[in-house]
């Protein structure tokens, strides 16, 4: 079995990179779904990552705005808006492969609908607000972790001139 360095290193090329089984499991469940992210990278021109980088940077802007909107909706105890915002950010996160953020946003969507994290059992408005308050801090932390990872990924490409 051939293995290469982790995708954070400058030797990463999506068409040749092979993750070890344990790396795949950790990276997929913990931060990035590399199959999804690799599909995004495949849309880039051969010599640059301008297309995928622009999508990721646009996502960063959307996420920051959405987090601000979530803070305001939580302050107003607007569960319907929190559910909508969770749904929105879930989709954007899934599109670029941010597994942790996507999963937390799905939970927020459920809590905003006064359901438990699975979406199957009802919870009180008070419980929903408490859960969302705790979850919002967690998802912001997960987002920051993913943002750092992706900024590092693109920074290394810019510094080495690799595609």
Automatic annotation (TrEMBL):
<dbReference type="InterPro" id="IPR045871">
    <property type="entry name" value="AHP1-5/YPD1"/>
</dbReference>
<dbReference type="GO" id="GO:0005634">
    <property type="term" value="C:nucleus"/>
</dbReference>
<feature type="region of interest" description="Disordered">
    <location>
        <begin position="1"/>
        <end position="25"/>
    </location>
</feature>
<feature type="modified residue" description="Phosphohistidine">
    <location>
        <position position="87"/>
    </location>
</feature>
<dbReference type="InterPro" id="IPR036641">
    <property type="entry name" value="HPT_dom_sf"/>
</dbReference>
<protein>
    <submittedName>
        <fullName>15546_t:CDS:1</fullName>
    </submittedName>
</protein>
<dbReference type="GO" id="GO:0009927">
    <property type="term" value="F:histidine phosphotransfer kinase activity"/>
</dbReference>
<dbReference type="InterPro" id="IPR008207">
    <property type="entry name" value="Sig_transdc_His_kin_Hpt_dom"/>
</dbReference>
<feature type="compositionally biased region" description="Basic and acidic residues">
    <location>
        <begin position="14"/>
        <end position="25"/>
    </location>
</feature>
<dbReference type="GO" id="GO:0000160">
    <property type="term" value="P:phosphorelay signal transduction system"/>
</dbReference>
<feature type="compositionally biased region" description="Polar residues">
    <location>
        <begin position="1"/>
        <end position="13"/>
    </location>
</feature>
<dbReference type="GO" id="GO:0005737">
    <property type="term" value="C:cytoplasm"/>
</dbReference>
<keyword id="KW-0597">Phosphoprotein</keyword>
<feature type="domain" description="HPt">
    <location>
        <begin position="48"/>
        <end position="153"/>
    </location>
</feature>
<dbReference type="GO" id="GO:0043424">
    <property type="term" value="F:protein histidine kinase binding"/>
</dbReference>
<dbReference type="Pfam" id="PF01627">
    <property type="entry name" value="Hpt"/>
</dbReference>
């Amino acid at each position: 079995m051939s293995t290469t360095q982790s995708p954070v290193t400058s030797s990463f090329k999506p068409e040749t990179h092979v993750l070890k089984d344990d790396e795949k499991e950790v990276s997929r469940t913990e931060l990035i779904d590399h199959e999804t992210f690799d599909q995004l990278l495949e849309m880039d021109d051969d010599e640059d990552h301008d297309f995928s980088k622009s999508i990721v940077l646009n996502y960063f802007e959307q996420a920051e705005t959405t987090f601000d909107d979530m803070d305001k909706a939580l302050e107003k105890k607007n569960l319907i808006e929190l559910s909508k915002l969770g749904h929105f950010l879930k989709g954007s996160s899934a599109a670029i492969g941010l597994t942790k953020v996507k999963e937390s946003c799905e939970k927020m969507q459920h809590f905003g609908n006064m359901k438990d994290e699975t979406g199957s059992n009802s919870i009180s408005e008070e419980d929903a607000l408490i859960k969302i308050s705790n979850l919002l801090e967690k998802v912001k932390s997960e987002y920051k972790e993913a943002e750092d990872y992706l900024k590092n990924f693109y920074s290394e490409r810019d510094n080495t001139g690799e595609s």
